[in-house]
Amino acid sequence: MKTLLRILTLMGLLGPLSAGWLPREIGEVRAYVYDYTQEEGNIALLKNGKLHPGIINVGGAKLSDDQVERLKAALRSSRERQPGALCYMPHHGFVFFDKAGKPMGHIELCFQCGNVDSSPKGLPDREWDWKAIRKLLGELKVPILGKSPDYTKLFKERAKAKGEDD
């Protein structure tokens, strides 16, 4: 039985993105960058089915099937998770949509401290492959900036360019 479970896991059939983490089959995945400071008391990329109001790349960047598979592999890293710093200022995430286009879960990441979160809960406590995730975001032209104020500045610049001044 253990051998069968290992084979299914290696084949990707029992990985964290298929074995009960999400309630339905994945229709598409989109990558987002956001300024979590745009809503006080809420740093979650997705809350009650709604995206954070600080989204910088409205609409997100849709991942190809190959990119979704590489993201899954990056989340299945087998190294033990190393605790990150105590800060948690996520600016990047991936939202998983079902076939009907409804958001059903997300992961969010803080490149500054190395901490992560997901909803629903249930992804294994493993060290994700940050290098692979960084590469995916680069391919999708989703910026990874230096510090939190850089994201606030980018959010305001994009809002101003769209005529959404404060």
Key phrases:
two-stranded antiparallel sheet; alpha+beta; 4 helices; disordered N terminus; five-stranded antiparallel sheet; single chain; 166 residues
Report how far apart the termini are: 60 Å
Q: Strand count, sense and closure of the main sheet? A: 5 strands, antiparallel
The radius of gyration is 16 Å
| Structure summary, number of beta strands | 7
Please state the average pLDDT score.
Answer: 82
Helical region count?
A: 4
Number of domains: 1
Low-confidence stretches: 1-19
> Oligomerization state of this entry?
single chain
* Neighbour order of strands in the largest sheet: 4-1-5-6-7
What shape does the CA trace take? globular
Write the element-wise H/E pattern from the N-terminal end onward.
HEEEEHEEEHH
| Computed structural class | alpha+beta
Give the percentage of residues in beta strands. 15-25%
Helix content: 25-40%
